[in-house]
User: Fold 2Fe-2S ferredoxin-type domain-containing protein from Candidatus Iainarchaeum sp.
Amino acid sequence: MTPKKMGKKKAVTREPTISFVPGVANNLHATIFRYNPSMDFVPRTHTYTMEKKEGESVWELLSRIKHRHDGSLTFRGNCGNGACGGCGIKVNGKPTLACTTQVASSLDAHNTMRIDPLDEKSVKKDLAQDETLFFAQFLAVKPWIQLRSNEHVRQHKMSLQELERLDRAPNCHMCQLCNTAARTDLEKELGPAAFVKGYRYARDMRDGDVTRIKLLQSHFPVHYALKSANLCPRDIMPGEKMEWIKKQKIGKSTERSK
Assistant:
């Protein structure tokens, strides 16, 4: 059997491989607050040099650092789209949500940025806050509806007008940005976020707790300016809610409907 002649092999043309070339124009430098109370005597910072990614949020950048470069970096976050409020941090000194803040808009002329926890004095680890006092304040304002004694057997529907009376307060996702913007000392005074929660139930027509306004007013005066407490990613305006609470006359049930 005559062996079959093999034809000449054709040269295979491959597309050139383009790899990332480190350089000043392609890199960003993120200086991040680091502190583990169980190991560190004092807080420190660490600067991570990373490739810039188009359209990347700060939360995505932190995730990239953690999963590819430093697994010890700790921060909070869940939804990635501003719904849960868990990723509150400070970027270049400004309280914000990491998942709704773009890296590109946070870089300075030297492609650097600074990332810190909302409150350096109450850090669980790195960028994650110790939220013990924060949630204790929510319990202090009794965040539940206390029904009147004769209203336990019927349904409690709300009209659109009654819902509008709450003025977006139920939308609070407890991100703590208002507390940070107002520079609240949670060990000494009630923060704007807790006032918003109290306002939400004080304005609810189904609530029969006549002592709620008195309870909230007992936490005034506060040392911070109410306008500074209006920083809110959901436009709830906590400072304005606090102004309403201050103006109520204790014992006037009609004030609830104004």
Notes: The helical segments are 58-68, 132-140, 160-164, 177-181, 192-202, 212-217, 238-247. The longest helix spans residues 58-68. The chain has two domains: 27-129, 132-257. Strands lie at 27-34, 44-51, 88-91, 94-97, 112-116, 123-125, 128-129.
